[in-house]
Amino acid sequence: MHESTKRLSYPYIVWISIIIIIPMLLIFLYSLIDPSDGNPMAFRLTIDNYVKFFSPIYISTLARSLWIAVWSTLACLLLGYPLAWVIAQCHPKKQSSLLLLFIMPMWINMLLRTYAWISILGKNGILNNILEFFHLAPVDIMYTDFAIILGMVYNFLPFMVLPIHTAIAKVDKNLIDAARDLGANNRQVFSKVVFPLTLPGIITGVIMVFLPAVSTFVIPQLLGGGQFMMIGNLIEKQFLLTGNWYFGSALSMILMIFILLSIWLMKRFDSDGQAGGALPW
Amino acid sequence: MTKTPLIEIKNLTKEYDGDIILKGIDLTIHEDEFVTLLGPSGCGKTTLLRIIGGFDTPTSGEVVFKGKDLIQIPSYKREINTVFQKYALFPHLNVFDNIAFGLRMKKVPESEITERVNRMLKMIKLTDFANRRIDSLSGGQQQRIAIARALVNRPKVLLLDEPLGALDLKLRQDMQYELKEIQREMGITFIFVTHDQEEALTMSDTIVVLNDGLIQQIGTPVDIYNEPRNRFVANFIGESNIVDAVMIEDYKVKFEGHVFECVDRGYNPNEAVEVVIRPEDLQIVDKEKGAFTGVVDSVIFKGVHYEIIVMVEGREYIVHSTQSAEVGSVVGMIVAPADIHVMEVGI
Amino acid sequence: MKKGLMMFVASIALLLSACSRDTREKLYVYNVGEYIDREVLNLFEEEFNCKVIYELYDSNETMYQKIKAGGTNYDVAFPSDYMVEKMIKDDLLIPLDYELIPNFQYIDEKYKHLPYDPENSYTVPYFWGTVGILYDQSVIKEPVDSWSVLWDDAYKGNVFMYDSQRDSLMVALKLLGYSMNTHDIEELEEAKQLLIDQRPLVYAYVTDQVIDNMISGNAALAVVYSGDATYIMDENENMNYVIPKEGSNIWVDSMVIPKTAQNVELAHEFINFMQRPDIALMNTEYVMYSTPNTETLKMVADQEWTQNDAYSPSEELLATLPMETFRDPGEFIKQYDDIWTQVLAAPNRR
Description:
The structure holds three protein chains of three kinds.
Chain A lengths: L1 H7 L1 H22 L16 H6 L2 H34 L2 H12 L6 H12 L4 H8 L11 H26 L2 H9 L4 H30 L2 H7 L6 H12 L2 H23 L14
Helix pairs in contact in A: 2-13, 4-8, 4-10, 6-11, 8-10, 8-11, 9-10, 10-13, 12-13
Chain B lengths: L4 E12 L2 E12 L3 E5 L6 H9 L6 E6 L2 E2 L10 E4 L11 H11 L4 H14 L15 H13 L5 E5 L7 H18 L2 E6 L2 H7 L2 E6 L2 E6 L1 H6 L4 H6 L4 E9 L2 E4 L2 E4 L9 E7 L4 E4 L6 E10 L4 E7 L2 E7 L8 E6 L5 E4 L3
Parallel strand pairs in B: 3-8, 3-9, 6-7, 7-8
Antiparallel strand pairs in B: 1-2, 1-4, 4-5, 9-10, 11-12, 11-14, 12-13, 14-20, 15-19, 16-17, 16-19, 17-18
Helix pairs in contact in B: 2-3, 2-4, 3-4
Chain C lengths: L1 H18 L5 E8 L5 H11 L1 E8 L2 H10 L6 E2 L3 H9 L34 E13 L22 E4 L2 H12 L8 H14 L3 E5 L2 H7 L5 E5 H10 L3 E4 L7 E6 L8 H11 L2 H11 L6 H7 L14 H6 L12 H13 L5
Parallel strand pairs in C: 1-2, 1-3, 5-6, 5-7
Antiparallel strand pairs in C: 4-7, 4-8, 4-9
Helix pairs in contact in C: 5-6, 5-13, 6-13, 7-8, 10-11
């Protein structure tokens, strides 16, 4: 029984090796190849590609990406948690249709949805037309970092709402009654009971937003007007424009290390596996 | 000793989705009293408890607590704590923090918290469990922690919503005694909800029997058992034989073709009544010595006694006896006057 | 029973589809998006009884990579001047048989024998143009004649630059008086610094989005291709186009036949067809890019949308300005790209 189940996983292992492990090894290899060599097969290994990263321009690119990703994630969290909460309070049947409504835009190509924002945020776009109609001052949002964050929040909000909603729905209503019974007012019920219990959902949501936010290049390109080169754009340019795949690979490795670091950090907030009183009061 | 009233419930009704769950409850609960709300599923006992606890609001009626209107006060401000049916312990906190929760909400100083919680742990005999996670505990342990979590706050009233339901028989019986002990020691009013009449009889000072949203009877366990006010209470508490009878005159009732002496009075002469006799009060004797006779239909050994079904002209009598009888034999039945309880018809 | 029926229906369908197989010749054409009047393809198909399979690419570089990688069979492609040079170097093109392209006679001499293909062995010009400044006359009252206007603080946040290293570096190099094809690192560093200094003034670095943006008048200044400018000016009468006095890039897009072409003869017919004056007319009217076809030029000469320096800059004008064609920088392109990346990555923005 055990043996045959194991054998079922072999095709999966082969698949994963081909589409994930081998490419990653290739990228790792490329990142170590000397770019001044015309012929990549010459195999002169060097860490120059990594050293190249440690100059103000490229470090600032990564810093900018982290900055925008953090703000986008925060915005998603502050918007997403209340939204998930409201949906969770509705009748169970209504909940699934509300969630479906929320997810449906995701079925449309991300590029198209981001383009839509261009026509909304432009100087003579829909937003300004509405403001004008109400005799309000027009806003100049397009091609700013605010536009990028807006685009990110719009695209990634569902990734935050879904795991949080699941976590909230799983909270035993009796626990909330118990907390109230023991003297907790609404604010305390939330901070001492609901929030800690939904923390795993929050962490999942944060990771699922932060990851694409820090590495995406489409949104900053379209909504930032090339003004905010993020690490994703930098990597894209290495591969498609400059043709310096070696530097691009090194950048990818650096980005990957950062993402793994971030995940590890956030996992430390998940007190699962430790004694229950791990959270500070 | 008369006890001081603590909670007064006046004409309480609760309607939900077109169903009337409580149809007008009048009840007074006193200090230092162990009150049990007893009734079958759906009778409204849990709803009544939840209203007292503040987790539900009544449709009409009053709940007065120490002279003040309780309904206006939100749950977290009431001096009432609850032990929930499924314990509702906080999974993200350890045992100590669970028990300390209520004290921390009241901003009691940490040193006092430590002292009171440890005392509680000692009382429920789980001193070494302070740092344990909730999911590593057995049902009985969780239940004791739930009780400790509620009691540590020294509430005026402790509400218990069928807290022993998930425990096995032996543990349940132990906990019944423990709870009774705790109530006696702490002098807190316990309002206990159960559908198990034996549990109610064991633990309570006062039993409130509920059915279909109305109070059927309020009384001490002895009163309720010996003198059920109506057929429902008679059937619900203990086992009973209920027979149609005629009240000849005071202290005399006739059924099964025999006039029995009894201890009830106040009925009209020859009024149709119902008579309740507990199975353990019926005695099987030789057929010549019985007040009336019947045929033994079945005999089941129940450990504590034999349960013997005797058919008397098509009517079934349940008898509990420490002695067996022969199936199919004709036997006589006698009953003492004090054990004959007369009720009005059809209440 | 049901399965059998399905099989029966399926085989019938297969047979029928086999019968209606297209027996016409096929021509594979590879071009940039929005660069042709599609009607032209239908006419070609009718006249020559063939099927045109029209595929799109988004940049010269993508097209180059695909053709060089092999495994494709495009019969006709439309590379830009510097890309033609590169493809000739890499031996990717077939020399043309001009006997089959009599319409070559209509091409203006100006666009023949250009540096990237001195003997016109491989190319027939398709569209040509310049790069210049598009400006909103309702906002900018002074005359615009220099690239330096894009560095004018008065227009802070009101400038669109092109997100293309070739074109933006060209602007800076020309303004500094250097050649746009320079390999001098010092000159490039100067250009880089100039572009970095410009960043606070730039509204955005865009490509095609400049068209819609300028039609809506979202900025006062933009660097644009002359063909786009023609289109924008036709839509927004406030806009005007000028080739700055420091000179600019003059470019030509040509038709070529890759070595991997399957149907060389039909490819020649196609190229010839495209420069038939009436066909070239359809294309230029649709795409609004300048045509090198003298006959066609006569036909559009008096239309309003052609009366500007974008569509038809005068010969005198072009003679006075230091115009340059972009040359293939070879391996040096990495330097260009690197510099441009540094410009965009610089933290200096509005």
